[in-house]
């Protein structure tokens, strides 16, 4: 039976883990990680990603989760979309994770570190500062035209989850538009990072949790609709 996750709570409590306990992945760990991989729903039926575990330990983590991926807008969006769902599922199982671009496996735009989180140390403080941690823009800065006065709480919750999505150097390269009480549009800058897909994943799982159904559609390059 598929496990039901409280994605809204996971998104709000998630943080990038940069200090890990010494832990070698067991066969049971690997099975659990691949179950998290299998739980991710794809954004596009035309982009195929095969996620793997690499026995590498940057920052002292236990391994890297990654997939080979092309550099087109659609492929990078798919990478972030699936990867962020994997991260949230791993968080629910007690794993620490971090989107990590400094160690790239062959053909991968970036990796996800995974391990058992340790108490934050000097590395967490330094890396958090360098990555502009806790400096996210407000919804007022991100929502084009503002949030309509009579928008439902569901709209605001989906927007907040999208706002909290991690991005390279915490630049939040996207903006939002509320088109109705059952739809928002997310537009993001394209580049070599999967940021827009990460943002879409946060919005999608939140809308699905609250409304029971959701449709994510690509409108054009870097522009997507989330409807429920």
Considering the chains and any ligands shown, give keywords for the structure:
single chain; alpha+beta; NADH Oxidase; 2 domains; four-stranded antiparallel sheet; Nitroreductase-like; TM1586_NiRdase
Explain briefly what this protein structure is.
With 228 residues, this protein is of the alpha+beta class. The chain contains seven helices and eight strands, in the order ααββαββαααββαββ.
Topology readout:
Layout lengths: L6 H7 L13 H13 L12 E3 L8 E4 L6 H20 L3 E5 L10 E5 L6 H9 L8 H4 L10 H11 L10 E7 L2 E6 L6 H17 L3 E6 L2 E5 L1
Antiparallel strand pairs: 1-2, 2-4, 3-4, 5-6, 6-8, 7-8
Pfam family, one: TM1586_NiRdase
InterPro entries: Nitroreductase-like, TM1586_NiRdase
Organism: Candidatus Cryosericum septentrionale
Description of the structure:
With about 230 residues, the protein is an alpha+beta fold. It has two domains: about 5-130, NADH Oxidase; about 140-225, NADH Oxidase, CATH 3.40.109. It has seven helices and eight strands, in the order ααββαββαααββαββ. The strands form two sheets. Strands 1-2-4-3 form a four-stranded antiparallel β-sheet, with helices on one face. A hairpin with an 8-residue loop joins strand 1 and strand 2 (about 65). Helix 2 crosses helix 3 (about 75-90), helix 3 (about 75-90) crosses helix 7 and helix 6 (about 155-165) packs antiparallel against helix 7 (about 195-210). The protein is globular, with a radius of gyration of 17 Å. It starts with 6 loop residues before the first helix and ends with a strand.
């Amino acid at each position: 039976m598929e496990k039901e996750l409280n994605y809204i709570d996971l998104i709000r409590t998630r943080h990038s883990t940069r200090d890990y306990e010494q832990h070698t992945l067991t066969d049971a760990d690997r099975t659990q990680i691949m179950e998290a991989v299998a739980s991710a729903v794809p954004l596009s039926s035309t982009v195929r990603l095969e996620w793997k575990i690499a026995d590498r330990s940057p920052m002292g983590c236990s391994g890297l989760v990654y997939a080979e991926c092309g550099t087109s807008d659609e492929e990078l969006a798919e990478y972030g979309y699936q990867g962020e769902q994997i991260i949230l599922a791993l968080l629910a199982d007690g794993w620490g994770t971090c989107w990590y671009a400094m160690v790239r496996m062959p053909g991968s735009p970036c990796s996800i570190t995974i391990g058992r989180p340790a108490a934050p140390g000097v590395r967490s403080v330094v890396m958090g500062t360098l990555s502009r941690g806790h400096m996210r823009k407000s919804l007022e800065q991100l929502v084009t035209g503002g949030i309509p006065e009579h928008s439902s709480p569901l709209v605001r919750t989906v927007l907040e989850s999208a706002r909290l999505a991690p991005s390279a150097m915490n630049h939040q390269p996207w903006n939002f538009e509320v088109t109705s009480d059952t739809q928002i549009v997310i537009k993001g800058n394209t580049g070599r990072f999967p940021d827009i897909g990460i943002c879409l994943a946060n919005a999608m799982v939140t809308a699905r949790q609250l409304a029971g159904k959701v449709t994510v559609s690509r409108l054009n390059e870097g522009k997507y609709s989330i409807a429920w």
